Amino acid sequence: MSWRGPADREHDAVRARRAVDDPLGEGVVIVVEQLRRAVPGGIGTYARGLVGGLARMAGSAPPRALLASRPRRLPDPLDRLEVPVRSSVLPGPLLTRAWSAGIAGVGAGPALVHATSMAVPPSRAPLVVTVHDLAWRALPEAYPPRGRRWHEAALARAVGRGSAFVVPSEPVAEALRSAGVTQPVAVIAEGADHLPPPDLEAAARYLAALGVEGPFLVAVGTLEPRKNLARLVAAYSRIRARLPERWPLLLVGPAGWGDAVGSLPEGVVLGGRPGDAVLAGCYALARCCAYVPLLEGFGLPVVEAMAAGTPVVASKVPSAGDAALFVEPTDEESIAEGLWSAASDEAIRTRLVATGRAHVAPMTWEATARAHVALWQEVAASRSGGSGT
């Protein structure tokens, strides 16, 4: 052991006093590897929303840095978040494999590390992990075998390394506890104010290029089996002729895996993934938004649509509160009737718009960030075990 003199002991004492006064004074490292993915998805929206919410906290937020793999291109897109970035020399696939093997972790320095997904590095500092859902356990058929294996192993690593967990809803908290998690689990709802103002002119051009003219219905989400799009499309086909006009159904979102939709019947249009301002415009122009997944930990498209003043028909996803027109996701007739009502019945539409706006009004990313900081302070102050090596 190296010799430590009085100056070293005084330095340690000063750091200890600072930790008592400000447990996050040494800063927080936020793992945002999802933002390096070609399709960051809902986890990417959460990561950006959290970072943006911390920025709106201004001086009351702790010092922070972002951790991710080597940039795929320069300039680094993460620089736009205006937070220092710790980029690994490793590309994404190699970095996450290294983390799985317990190497290339976060060394001494930060007061705390927060992983925004279950891709968690080993960490000397306390580690907080966000788990968005455990759907691969509840719906194994909706995930490819490789995905199920990765999620199961990732959950085991997160449980072994994490000091505490963040989840977006109480059902996810219950699933985590049922999985044997004994660490603290904080339920923190996500924000609804991350989309920019709608660009209605650009949205109109986007829709025209797709052949969508006039009113339409919209569904937003990654095209994958658990989003239940095949039943949604079948339900839409049931009521298309009953609509005041044969309004199309626009499916907006990136491709996932598997044959999520099947053959497209007349009136169903695939729109890919437009930019955020165009997406906001699509919400604003749509007669209603449909979101009927089989299982969801939160459900960001629901609150995005409500924030835009769009009626929402949904399965019982946590994000919706009591502000959507709820349907049974395994019953095509239930979905069909919900679509028809939300798109055509003006009294129902008016009610859904009002309840939706009221529901999402307090759901800001700044509020989400403040709840995270409160948890971080508690974890850092306790300096509890279980943060990995």
Structure explained in plain terms:
The protein has 389 residues and is an alpha/beta fold. It has 2 domains: 6-191 and 365-382, Glycogen Phosphorylase B (Rossmann fold), CATH 3.40.50; 200-360, Glycogen Phosphorylase B (Rossmann fold, 3-Layer(aba) Sandwich), CATH 3.40.50.2000. The protein has helices at residues 6-21, 41-57, 92-100, 135-138, 145-161, 170-178, 200-209, 229-239, 276-285, 300-307, 332-344, 346-360, 365-382, and strands at residues 28-31, 64-68, 85-87, 112-115, 127-130, 164-167, 185-187, 217-220, 249-252, 268-270, 288-291, 312-314, 325-326. The strands form 2 sheets. The chain has a 7-stranded parallel sheet, with helices on both faces. Strands 10-9-8-11-12-13 form a 6-stranded parallel sheet, sandwiched between helices. The longest helix has 18 residues, at 365-382. It is globular and about 65 Å long. 46% of the residues are buried.
CATH class of the largest domain: Alpha Beta
Shape call = globular
Write the CATH architecture name of the largest domain.
Answer: 3-Layer(aba) Sandwich
| Count of individual beta strands | 13
**Count of DSSP-assigned helices:** 13
| Proportion of residues in extended strands | 5-15%
Spans where pLDDT lies below 50 across 5 or more residues = 6-19, 384-389
